[in-house]
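Late entry, evening session. Most of the bench is empty. Finally got around to the prediction I had been postponing all week. Sequence below, unchanged from the version circulated by S.P.
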Amino acid sequence: MADSKLIRGTMLLSGAALASRILGLIYIFPFTAIVGQTGVALYQYGYIPYTVLLSLATLGVPLAVSKFVSKYNALGDYRTGYRLFKSGLVIMAISGLLAFLLLFFLAPVITPIVVNDPTATEGNSFEDIVFTIRMVSVALLIVPLMSVVRGYFQGFQSMGPTAVSQVVEQIVRVLFILAMTFSIVQLMNGSNGLAVGFATFGAFVGALGGLGVLLYYWVKRKEHILAEVEKSKVDHQLSLKAMYKELIAYALPLSFVGLAIPLYQLIDGATFNRTLQAIGYSQLEVETYFAVFTSTAHKIVLIPMALATALSITLVPTITKSFTNQDHDLLQRQITQTYQVILFLTVPAAVGLAVLSYPVFGTLYSIEDLEIGGYILRYYAGITLFFSLFAVTAAILQGMNKQKYAVIALAVGLVIKLVTNVSFLKAFGPLGGVWATYAGHLASIAVTVWAIGKFAHFRYTLIMKRAILIFLFAAVMAIGIIIINVGMQSWFPLTTRGNALAIVLVTVSSGAVIYLYISYRSHLAGKILGDRFRFLRKTDSSSN
């Protein structure tokens, strides 16, 4: 019964996380249409430091608190978990307040790092950037508190409050962003700076919605929880110091790995604009490239990553059991399956995005910024494979209780990104940031892949063979897509979003058919996805 409850709760939480991510991806399309690429760049100037400070303020608290509470609840000690909950609210309130004050008052210090000339007449102004950073900083007063409440509920294997609050928070945030930016820009004829500032304030408004949901659940369940606390059979009487030492041991590796993308973007925020302006790019050009690189194209490459990790990550919790039980054969199969699913889904998606970068960008955003958007996306598309591989290999290491190697891997990648970013930007222009991100993630993946091979005694021979096949099939698919794309553009030139949409619909459908047909006929699809899609195994039921 308990296992069934946990499985249902985990599925609910995974579904909510996926729904929140989809909402977070979708809103950027109408938002970009309203404020343009420079408006998106301004939004990123505020949101990147906010995300980093939020992660540092919460330190992976929801999962760490849930693990702590679940452990002591299982021992019959509900009192210790409740003490952590009460003190955690105080600690998170203080850390949130400190993070808010830090970001609010450092806004004028952060801004010159982003823009060289505070008197520039094109692009975003110094005042607009300061205003945006300060508006988003207010959310830091609330979001850390929610992390403790969510973690406490999850410690009781109750995922509903977290799931519902996440979705409500995102819905409220997205509706506020779109309503405010449309009203300010279209109805009141206000400035982009004002509109984007209020858009980032949506993080606070969304947090209020999420907190309201959590308070509703707390009022509803408070009596039952307090009754469990009073009935505690054991009281470990841990000191606050001991409790937080254990909590930090759970949280630190998780929070650090989760910071991967925000920290990469923080490096870009500190170096991208200034370096390109120093070699002759105008502020307006630089901000357009920055917006595409860190937000609009970035959002597109996250889509296939979300699909791939959603399928493969379901295997990761079982890796913990296999590793703990020293079931070597089962562990080999689980890791093999995880790698295969990631490669099978993400490689063709990355190749397809690279080949169709211009029509895809034109469909989702605008024809006006097509040259810059399509150009960046063409070379950045492959990063979806790197993001997926790092996320999943880090999760496998976590399942094996070797998460410190994931932290080491991230640190190595960040150092390489930091060291190469400026020199690559000077050498390759706007694409330098892309190549530095590739270099950093490649180094991180090399470390995680090595660690999995070492501690799981995993052999990569089969994965290498399957990877070669997958890349070969993706190349055949790419040739087909290129032929169809060139042919269609002779009839539907990329001058309108309607034409771009027509090209995308036909080429993506054709590419999917080509790739899946080759994979099916070669039995590769059946071998990799057979357990999930049994019909794929009908011609190859004996394959391993």
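Two things to note before I forget:
The CA atoms of residues 469 and 524 lie 8 Å apart.
The longest helix spans residues 192-230.
Will write this up properly tomorrow.
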